[in-house]
Design brief:
heterodimer, A: 364 residues, alpha+beta, ten-stranded mixed β-sheet, 7 helices, 37% strand, B: 259 residues, alpha/beta, Diaminopimelate Epimerase, Chain A, domain 1, five-stranded mixed β-sheet
Chain lengths: 364, 259
């Protein structure tokens, strides 16, 4: 395995560089130098061409004391900073050395077709992500107080999650039966007139970059819930955005995600085209034909902060959209005492108000 | 001298009151459209005269062919004033006007006694009593019913209905609302603890101008008409005598409609 890792180093002091979401620059924490991602990317492109000719230090998988199946899914790299061996799974594209903490990128994971087309750089910093978690708790009145107080953050990591972005057009052919009714009143009777219609709607709806996460490590319901992403901020992929974050290459093929993305497009196309049917008393669908045509499939890295906490021995996982700050999490515990107290309070206040109004109506 | 003048004035006034019903006696009921036989008119006249004499309130029926563009209520007032209807100094009278051209009817009351006895509620009841016969062409029966009702309501004192005072018990169902509202509120707030979920739509990813409608047809097929009879309101506890009469600036109160 020609496994090589890149460590983006400061050209002034040799310290490790990391991508800073606030300034959208690569910064050196040792000397405070800042660099444009493009500038560093160009330097390392040159460097990697030179390095390609050299047999880089790597660790043979046979040396590991793991089963053959486990070893088949593991990769070992040598940290260029401290020389330690970094063991990670076969999909890891960016990580940090567990010994010296320096961020490292595995360029081999971006070779050829594995190279993402786009990336949305992180906009939310680690501190902002932690702050989002505190804000998240505020909006949950039935969360146990002990959970808020003693639920300590165990781990936070910024992850570039691989996503497939599907663009397409949904050709839609819909038919409905509808009625329009009105009632008039004469001296002796109510006359209800019902007009029956057949409604046809044909058209197409375009979709750009419908995301579907391409990593089995990320739960679909987490990644769906942190949407939407704003693709106006998306830029062509550069490895220089990765230092300081974790990243995996995709392990779900595009065609496997396509079904789910096309289903979303189909549902939206039907509801969008159906919304043009208005002014009727009743509308019943009669025919729904939708055919989604693929225009493009792009591979992108999208930014997500993953936060892990533990309470009463149970782990709780949270995800923050690294671009918009939208937060979702595991189903949180419920304080039933708080639920009952809130129910009692609302009931009591309303009963008092109603009693006062009724008393005034009876005696006033 | 003053005493003699006062006595003459009193005698003259008494004579005028006595003469007034005699003057009106011949025109209690008049049918200008010809829907009643002369025998029927005579019978109705007898009834009307008897009622008028007994209560001092003139009871009249006029069957006309159009209202000369005045509308049924204005035309009834015009007839009442123009023909000198009404007894006593305050012109006590009740007039049923039937317009056969446009099939409108109107009950008009005038004077203190008439407006007191023929309240809005009572005029409404009277109309309900004779409208069925009137609509079906049984005119004599309709007018007889009207005169009978006049007799009945002139003799019957107005009893004002007062609903029983409400107690807190009457509002008992309202007290079930707070627990329901409390339950709905806590359930909504509890749902905030669940934030993850699979998305089934992609509306956020439709670009500006990304919706193209190529065919939009709303085809009319056919029409259905359903007729439902309006249930008749019974003379029951649903409607109550309130003792109220709406009197216009001319001193008339009306109840009118179509038949």
């Amino acid at each position: 395995m020609a496994d090589q890792v890149n460590e983006y180093k400061c050209s002034n002091c040799g310290g490790p560089l990391r991508f800073d979401p606030a300034s959208q620059m690569l910064v050196c924490d040792n000397c405070g130098s800042v660099f444009q991602p493009d500038e560093i990317e160009a330097q390392y492109l040159e460097h990697s061409l030179e390095a390609a000719a050299i047999d880089t230090t790597s660790l043979s998988l046979n040396d590991l004391q793991w089963s053959a199946e486990e070893a088949a899914h593991m990769r070992a790299y040598t940290c260029p900073s401290c020389g330690a061996q970094i063991i990670c799974d076969e999909h890891t594209a960016a990580t940090s050395c567990p010994y010296c903490g320096n961020p490292t990128v595995v360029p081999a994971q971006f070779a050829g077709s594995l190279r993402p087309d786009y990336i949305i750089p992180f906009k939310y910093t680690k501190e902002q992500a932690i702050n989002q978690l505190r804000e998240f708790y505020k909006d949950k009145p039935f969360l146990p107080n002990e959970f808020k107080d003693r639920n300590h953050l165990e781990e936070i990591k910024g992850v570039y999650v691989p996503f497939w972005l599907f663009s397409g057009r949904a050709d839609t052919d819909l038919a409905f039966t509808a009625t329009r009714s009105h009632t008039t009143t004469t001296k002796d009777e109510y006359i209800t007139t019902t007009e029956h219609y057949r409604i046809l709607r044909q058209g197409s709806v375009d979709f750009d970059y419908v995301p579907a996460d391409a990593s089995t490590k990320m739960a679909d319901d987490f990644m769906d819930a942190i949407e939407p992403f704003d693709f106006d901020d998306m830029v062509p992929f550069q490895m220089s955005y990765l230092p300081g974050y974790l990243a995996d290459k995709y392990d779900v093929e595009a065609q496997d995600d396509e079904v789910r993305a096309f289903s979303r497009m189909s549902n939206s196309a039907v509801s969008t085209i159906s919304s043009t049917v208005s002014g009727y008393s009743t509308v019943l669908p009669e025919r729904q034909n939708v055919r989604v045509r693929r225009k493009a499939t792009d591979y992108a890295f999208l930014p997500v902060w993953m936060l892990a906490t533990r309470w009463n021995g149970r782990p709780y996982l949270f995800a923050v959209n690294g671009q918009t700050g939208k937060m979702v999490g595991d189903d949180l515990p419920v304080d039933n005492g708080k639920v009952f107290k809130r129910f009692l309070l609302i009931t009591l206040i309303l009963e008092i108000i109603i009693f006062a109004v009724v008393w005034m109506a009876v005696n006033g | 001298m003053k005493k003699i003048t006062a006595m003459f004035a009193a005698a003259f006034a008494a004579l005028m009151i006595l003469l007034t019903p005699l003057k009106a006696a011949a025109v209690w009921v008049r049918d200008d459209y010809g829907i009643l036989s002369s025998a029927e008119v005579d019978k109705l006249n007898e009834m009307a005269e008897s009622i008028s004499a007994e209560y001092g309130v003139g009871t009249y029926i006029r069957v006309v062919n159009g209202t000369e563009g005045m509308g049924i209520e204005s035309y009834a007032e015009y007839l009442f004033n123009n023909e000198g209807m009404g007894l006593g100094t305050s012109g006590e009278g009740v007039l049923l006007t039937i317009d056969m051209a446009d099939r409108y009817y109107d009950i008009a009351a005038h004077g203190d006694i008439a407006n007191t006895q023929f309240t809005d509620y009572r005029k409404d009841r009277m109309a309900e009593d004779f409208l069925d016969d009137l609509s079906r062409g049984y005119y004599y029966n309709a007018f007889k019913t009207y005169l009978s009702d006049c007799d009945y309501y002139l003799r019957t004192e107005v009893v004002i209905y007062k609903p029983a005072p409400k107690t807190i018990k009457d509002f008992a169902p309202l007290f079930a609302i707070p627990p329901l509202a409390g339950l709905i509120t806590v359930l909504i707030q509890k749902r905030r603890l669940k934030t993850r979920g699979i998305r089934t739509t992609a509306n956020n990813y439709i670009p500006q101008g990304g919706v193209h409608l190529s065919n939009m047809i709303d085809m009319y097929l056919y029409r259905e008409v359903h007729r439902t009879p309006i249930p008749k309101v019974e003379h029951s506890s649903e409607k109550h005598e309130t003792g109220h009469t709406t009197i216009n600036s001319g001193g008339f109160s009306h109840h009118s409609g179509r038949f």
